[in-house]
Amino acid sequence: MAKLRRNHKQSGNVLSIAVIRVAAFVLIGGFAVFYISESLKKEISFPSESEYEIPAATNPEERFYIPISPSKEIVNHKYYSLAYNEEHEQAEWVAYELSKSQLLLPNVERETQFRPDPAVQTKSALHRDYINSGFTRGHLAPAGDMAFNEEAMTQSFFMSNISPQLESFNVGIWNELENDVRDWAFDNGRVYVVTGPVLNGPILKKIGENKVSVPKYFYKVILEIQGKEKNGIGFIIENDRSDIHLKEYAVSIDSVENFTGYDFFPDLMIDELEEEIESKFDVSKWRFDPKRFEMRNEKWQH
């Protein structure tokens, strides 16, 4: 009997030791998880809320990403700036920031009414200048980029932000490029965009009572400097239907500067960085959507 009692006591001791070990393991494990968690919090750099603010400058005149061009009339709207060319009755360029935070917001309802721009001192072109002209009212700052609130959407329909485009160009390759730019803004967090008609080159014709010039070419330059890699790319595309891949139109920002006569992003980067980014481009750094290219060709193949 004594032996049995002794064995029972030893069994109790073993059980107690096991319980203590399990408890110690749980405590140590819990402390380790807590320690690792706290260490990770210290090592990971979480973005501040300011990085997700909509890029609307309190004082738009202080925007540092607008180009230098011959036009003397610079108009600063809340979410984009432009240089209005009275001779051609449209903007030489439209410049704006496009951020991931804008793209994450629900799209407001699309505007339907084109309006004269009240901020253009020399008076902008009118909606009726385009009626029965054979050309669509092509956005420079796209409505899709300005869909994050009603004010931005409304201002994107000012006639100063509009240029005559063939429908096959407007809803074809130009629309494809606009959608790809939104992808790049989402991928990179923020991009700077300058876009417009080439007004120092061939003009196809004049339309409307205000003699709005129809440009043969349009351009767009995109700059990404928020990430570790700084990249820039440009495009010069003829105002016509195209079945050529968008990559084939890619050029350096320097090439667009030479073609248009404008100096892009002069206040945004130091001279050395500007020269490095604007003199070269790498299409592999930019995501092109193959489905959009296929859809464009299917729609306009006839």
Task: Provide a descriptive summary of the structure in words.
34% of the residues lie in helices and 21% in strands. The protein folds into two domains: 1-46; 49-300, Extracellular Endonuclease, subunit A (Extracellular Endonuclease, Chain A, 3-Layer(aba) Sandwich). It is α+β, with helices and mostly antiparallel strands. It is globular. The protein has helices spanning 2-43, 100-104, 150-155, 167-188, 253-260, 271-278, 290-300, and strands spanning 73-76, 81-85, 90-99, 136-139, 162-165, 190-197, 203-207, 212-215, 217-224, 231-238, 250-251. 35% of the residues are buried. Strands 1-2-3-6-9-10-11 form a seven-stranded antiparallel sheet, sandwiched between helices. Strands 4-5 form a two-stranded antiparallel sheet. Helix 4 packs antiparallel against helix 7. The protein is built from seven helices and eleven strands. The model is unreliable at 1-20 and 22-52 (pLDDT under 50).
Describe this protein with a few key phrases.
302 residues; alpha+beta; Extracellular Endonuclease, Chain A; seven-stranded antiparallel β-sheet; two-stranded antiparallel sheet; 11 strands; disordered N terminus
Order of helices and strands: HEEEHEHEHEEEEEEHHH
Helix content: 25-40%
Please state how the strands of the largest beta sheet are arranged side by side.
1-2-3-6-9-10-11
Structural class: alpha+beta
Multimeric organization:
single chain
In short:
The chain is an alpha+beta fold. The protein has helices at 2-43, 100-104, 150-155, 167-188, 253-260, 271-278, 290-300, and strands at 73-76, 81-85, 90-99, 136-139, 162-165, 190-197, 203-207, 212-215, 217-224, 231-238, 250-251.
